[in-house]
TrEMBL record:
Name the UniProt record assigns to this protein: Putative thymidine phosphorylase
Annotated organism of origin: Permianibacter aggregans
Record field: catalytic activity: thymidine + phosphate = 2-deoxy-alpha-D-ribose 1-phosphate + thymine
UniProt similarity note: Belongs to the thymidine/pyrimidine-nucleoside phosphorylase family. Type 2 subfamily.
Any one GO molecular-function label of the UniProt entry: thymidine phosphorylase activity
EC number: 2.4.2.4
EC primary class: transferase
Lineage: Bacteria, Pseudomonadati, Pseudomonadota, Gammaproteobacteria, Pseudomonadales
């Protein structure tokens, strides 16, 4: 019948990759079907259909007999203006019963998680339902169940095979601003002839992810075929995982995690290992920074996370090595995509002003990974240092960028504001979380050039009025907003009045 058909209207609204429908409160379909604001509705155009959240608008916004569509809904339905859209209630979501089971303390099997994640990937879950799933899957998750979740994430996405070996990969669990070692590690490892098809996430709760930083220097949203071409040519890549459909359920969950600012151990492990397995890796190095204001706060928690990562990795056929690193302060000087990219380039170019802590950590991680690939134990660091010092790593990095679409210099911010020391003394502590929040309020990662440039480190002696860090922003409004937040904080850098020893 035609009673539930409305004419498509493109609203031009970016709803953060969500499918949203807009109907007038007086619409006959809306009233007859009993739809309310935030109802879930099934939209059909020809053979294409999707589930959308419903917003109710005033009559003046949506013409009579029309239904408005967000940009993502418009693209997925491949609509033309005025084309007929059938509107109906969605079928009951059977997999939510499994979410409720988990919420009340029952253990789920891989088949249960596959049913849930299949519906997640099909975008049948609202953000409220996704939040319920994330909350449920963060409780009482033991090794066996984390393995089930990880395997299910792999099963509902693409899986790559490179027909060469060994295939190496690396990941940092996050929580430490700066720490942009991955581009350096990939360049060093690939320059030594190993295969490293690196897929990375965009930022979840941080001011920049590896994909955000790399995007300031080259193209990262490659298709699967483009990714294969780059790896065939250079033995490695540095691309955004969301563009190649590896563990697509995780990409959807990350969107909600970003809003909630949460990242449970179980979800972290499943997220990391599912993507490494799907990317075709055989051996994976995990960097676990530990510090009072890092994501992992204590050595005990770090060791527990490392142990579970190794155990789950073994269950799904991955060889995992974890290195627990110092997470008391940011690594490098830049916090934010372009500022971190400048640190990466300084290290690769062997410049005298390159941040030494970033260089050392990248070499340690690259050395570990080379040894996982077969370089004799104890020789990895020396081999990595030689590769970097000789310029081979820089040449390989630029070759990878060229294969991905060409290299470009990171942009610079229009506005800068130094933040100075309030007194003489020695830097004794730093709050990583507040620094990260401040960089995000300045515009990172959405604005590539925004963030923080650090001028001091733990143990440095400072004098009153000396810059501790500089805020970078691309608009005056974002700079003002970040400074207002800064005014409400206690000391980000704790400065004692003792003299430096």
């Amino acid at each position: 019948m035609d009673e539930n058909r409305l004419k498509a209207k493109r609203m031009g609204i970016d709803a953060q990759r969500k499918c949203v429908a807009y109907m007038s409160s007086s619409c006959h379909v809306c009233r007859a079907e009993g739809f309310n604001a935030l109802s879930r509705v099934r939209l059909t155009v020809g053979e294409r259909h999707l589930i959308a959240d419903l917003n109710i608008c005033q009559e003046s916004i949506i013409p009579e007999g029309h239904i408005g569509l967000s940009e993502k809904a418009w693209q997925l339905l491949d609509c033309q203006p005025g084309q007929a859209v059938s509107v109906a209630h969605p079928l009951p979501l059977a997999s939510m019963a499994k979410v409720r089971r988990k919420f009340f303390g029952h253990q789920l099997l891989q088949a249960d998680y596959e049913a849930i994640l299949f519906d997640v990937v099909a975008e049948r879950y609202s953000d409220v339902q996704l939040t319920a799933f994330l909350a449920a899957a963060s409780k009482d998750m033991h090794e066996e169940e984390i393995t089930a979740l990880t395997s299910a994430m792999v099963a509902v996405g693409e899986q790559l095979s490179w027909h060469r070996g060994p295939v190496l990969d690396k990941h940092c669990v996050g929580g430490l601003p700066g720490n942009r070692t991955t581009p350096i590690v990939v360049a060093v490892v690939a320059a030594n002839g190993f295969c490293m098809p690196k897929t990375s996430s965009r930022a979840i709760t941080s001011p920049a992810g590896t994909a955000d930083t790399m995007e300031t220097m080259t193209q990262v949203d490659l298709s699967l075929n483009q990714m294969r071409s780059v790896v065939a040519r250079e033995g490695a890549c540095l691309v955004w995982g969301g563009a190649v459909n590896l563990s697509p359920a995780d990409d959807i969950l990350i969107r909600v995690e970003r809003v909630l600012d949460i990242d449970s151990d179980a979800q972290l492990i499943a997220s990391v290992l599912s993507k490494k397995k799907a990317a075709g890796a055989g051996a994976v190095l995990i960097d676990i920074p530990v510090g009072p204001t890092a994501k992992v706060r204590t050595d005990v928690a770090g060791e527990r996370l490392a142990s579970t990562l190794k155990a789950v990795g073994e269950r799904i056929g991955l060889r995992v090595h974890a290195r627990i690193t110092d997470g008391r302060q940011p690594i490098g000087r830049g916090i934010g995509p372009a500022l971190e990219a400048r640190d990466v380039l300084a290290v690769l170019q062997n410049r005298s002003d390159a941040p030494g802590d970033l260089r050392l950590r990248a070499l340690q991680l690259a050395g570990d990974l080379l040894e996982l690939g077969g370089v004799p134990v104890g020789e990895g660091f020396r081999r990595a240092e030689q590769t970097l010092s000789s310029g081979e790593a820089l040449r390989k990095f630029l070759a990878i960028c060229d294969a991905q679409g060409g290299f470009r210099e990171p942009t610079k911010a229009r506005f800068k504001h130094p933040v100075t020391a309030a007194r003489n003394g020695v830097v004794r502590d730093v709050d990583n979380r507040v620094l990260a929040r401040l960089a995000k309020l300045a515009g990172a990662p959405a604005t590539q050039s925004a963030g923080i440039e650090l001028h001091v480190r733990l143990g440095d002696a400072v004098i009153e009025g000396e810059p501790l860090f500089t805020l970078h922003a691309d608009t005056r409004g974002e700079l003002t907003y970040a400074l207002a937040y800064l005014d409400m904080q206690q000391e980000i850098f704790v400065i004692s009045e003792e003299e430096a020893s």
